[in-house]
Amino acid sequence: MTRPKFAYRDGDTFVHGVDARAKLTALVVVSLALTWASAGVTAAIGVVTYLVARSAGVSARELLRDVRLVLVILVVGTVARAVSDPAGLVPGAVAGTVASARFVVIIALAYTVSATTRPGDIRLAVESFLEPLPSVEETDWGTMFATAARFFPLVFEESRRVRDARKARLGERRSWYSRVRSTAFTLLIRTFRRADTVALAVEARAYSSERSSLRGLVWERTDTAFILVACSVAVVAVVV
Amino acid sequence: MIRFEGVAHERDGERALDGVSLEIDSGGFVLLLGRNGSGKTTLLRHMNALLTPDEGSVLVDGVPTDEDGEGARRKVGMVFQDAGSQIVAETVKDDVAFGPENLGLETDEIRERVDEAVSAVGATALLDRSPYELSGGELRRVALAGVLAMRPDVLALDEPLADLDYEGEKAVVERVVGANQDGKTVVVATHDAEPFVDLAERAVVLEDGSVAEDGTPDELFSRGLEGYGVRTPCSYR
Predict the structure, then answer these.
(1) Residue A98 Cα, gap to closest chain B Cα (Å)
(2) Cβ–Cβ of A214/B134 closer than 8 Å?
(3) Gap between the Cα atoms of A198 and A203, Å rounded
(4) B219 partner at 20 to 30 Å CA-CA among A49, A210, B78, B234?
(5) What was the ipTM of the complex prediction?
């Protein structure tokens, strides 16, 4: 089986070692800050993100390959913004490019977090975030996030299988519209079926909200430092 | 013991099970035979309470599955036909631990069960591997380990040898036999009885959701089951 996009990859890099709570917090804080960031700051955060991803074993090439569909959508969005902006073509293109660049950086951050964080650790992190809240079943929410983190790559895997099945029977000779239509329809059906199977698999093994855990999260000083750096980046992004 | 009392189950407007009455004794080794769509998988899912009857009842140790589904799942461990789809975690270790975690066990106990289960299926070397890196045979062994780690009384296996090579088939059969010798009830749904025919003490043939034949493998295969879409094992030809 080929490793699907966005799936966790085992490793012992610094980013792998950072506590899931720290990584998720940093992701949220920096992503929010990016919505205020100027073009220059967005570029700077993009460079930092690239370096962090690289140190975690995620190459720019595989990132671009895995999110190319999103990039196409962003390019289309940028062009649409440029031609429809009342301020004119160039200001519209610049604004669209900056907005798209923010999205790209956020996607790269999320990709790096998902590639270096076990879904089980995401579950524990979500549980610990929700634990103080009254009348919230933190175990159920944690499992929901972890299952989503596990399921997301499976959708890409299904998409690859559908494409391979199409190619194997010379489906590439069909029109672009016909290919997209057949892939989207088949993928939708298979995704729902896969979701159903994952839910059954969880249920078959006596899923309980009273569950315990093999692993635990351990907060270390490096995690605090990681959060502080992320918050500093966010403050700079908002202020500059 | 598992008892089916007049169980009917409707799926997409058709009766997947139709008036099934059956008793499976503790410690037994039962083969569920029949062609594709005969109701084998549906029957297994009722044992694990993934499905509950539209009519009749399924009792696991005297308790109806529609009253205590979780209890049934603790007692009956099910391995799906598509083992890959049963893997819910990102490493073999985490996946095998998933069931024991659901039982709310202490960390040391979970660790012990994980080690024991992966060792039982010969998958210790795979412990830290991602499921995406495993072959079909390895995935099936990991899926079996995930169920064994819960230490159920009953193993319900859906086509457990599908897509396995000789080595993989041998490993799974050995583990299933070992579990049965340890006192676990084993129910195997298959359309190919060959590897299990000398091990099972009973065979139940399903046809259109009903029990068509019930007896020892010897009795049934001597008569031949080709009419039910079941290949006759070599030793009976």
Answers:
(1) 35
(2) no
(3) 9
(4) B78
(5) 0.73
Question: Does pLDDT of B94 surpass 80?
Answer: yes
pLDDT for res B54:
95
Mean pLDDT by groups of 10 residues along chain A of 240 residues: 70 92 95 90 92 90 83 88 85 89 92 88 88 83 78 79 77 80 83 84 84 85 94 88
Token pair belonging to A136:
């919230």
Residue A58, C-beta contacts closer than 8 angstroms, at least 6 positions apart: A111, A112, A115, A116
Contacts of A152 in chain B (CB under 8 A): none
Helix (H), strand (E), coil (C) string for chain B: CEEEEEEEEEECCEEEEEEEEEEECCCCEEEEECCCCCCHHHHHHHHCCCCCCCEEEEEECCEECCCCHHHHHHHEEEECCCHHHHCCCCCHHHHHHHHHHHCCCCHHHHHHHHHHHHHHCCCHHHCCCCHHHCCHHHHHHHHHHHHHCCCCCEEEEECCCCCCCHHHHHHHHHHHHHHHHCCCEEEEECCCCHHHCCCCCEEEEEECCEEEEEECHHHHHHHCCHHHCCCCCHHHC
Minimum CA–CA partner of B144 in chain A = A205
In this model, does residue B204 exceed pLDDT 70?
yes
Answer whether B21's CB lies under 8 Å from B39's CB: no
Q: Which residue of A has its CA nearest to B78?
A: A204
Residues 6+ apart with CB under 8 A from A189: none
Residue, of B219 and B165, whose pLDDT is higher:
B219
Contact A1 B100 (CB under 8 A): no
A33: which residues sit within 8 A by CB, 6+ positions away? Answer: A233, A234, A235, A237, A238
Query: Which of B87, B104, B132 is closest, CB to CB, to A208?
Result: B104
Distance of residue B77 Cα from the nearest chain A Cα, in angstroms: 7
User: Which residues 150-179 of B have a C-beta within 8 angstroms of A?
Assistant: 150
The whole-chain average pLDDT of chain A stands at 86
Enter the tokens of residue B76.
Answer: 């009956």
What single DSSP character describes residue A143? H
Q: What is the pLDDT of residue A2?
A: 58
